[in-house]
Amino acid sequence: MQTLSPSLITALQAARDAGIAPVYFVWIEARNRATGAIESMGLWSGDEDAAFSVETPNGGTASREYLGGVNLEVDSLKSVADLTDEPVTVSMSQIAGATQQLVRGTDVRLAYVEIHATSRVGGALASIPQLQWIGIVDDVQIATPQAGGDGRIGLTVRSAIMSQLLAVNPAKSSDSHQKRRQAGDEFSKYSASVQARKIQWYKKDQ
Fold first, then answer.
1. Cβ(138)–Cβ(158) under 8 Å?
2. What does the pLDDT look like over 146-205, one tens digit per residue?
3. Per-residue pLDDT reduced to its tens digit, 42-86
């Protein structure tokens, strides 16, 4: 369940008459390719660099610097009540200096991502940016345009929780696999025979 700011709810309720101008903020923590250190970068859909106070996952707030002028767009941002995997696409200009540093200077694969959003009313933000999504970067697409076209960089961001719940473990709990982990380990010695034997728990052995 998500609790939105009352001022943002008011802006959304008035959207039919006043219109709505969504504003997105993306915070990425990626690994520097040269040093291996984690580096943070904030991007937003505005035109200028600015500092904003945003919601944090623990319910507090944090002041962060966000870089503008990257033509940031966020698509497929959905809230579902089941285990459906709904990846979010974050796209930005290919030639912006900030995005070049992001994809060239850091390794964004599996990078931690927070996505915030709010609306603009009369030139001002309707509320502090509300936390909408927490995930990890699953894929990066770099679209090189034709002459005169606009290039885009797209990040596919999947829910961190869903990525863990839906991950497939290739390891098998067999006796041979257990012994490869540690010689002499007999934890799965009888796993094959136990798996083949079907016992009806409510009946006594004859």
1. yes
2. 777 678 899 999 987 777 777 666 665 677 767 777 778 777 776 666 555 566 655 555
3. 999 999 999 999 999 988 999 999 999 999 999 877 766 666 778
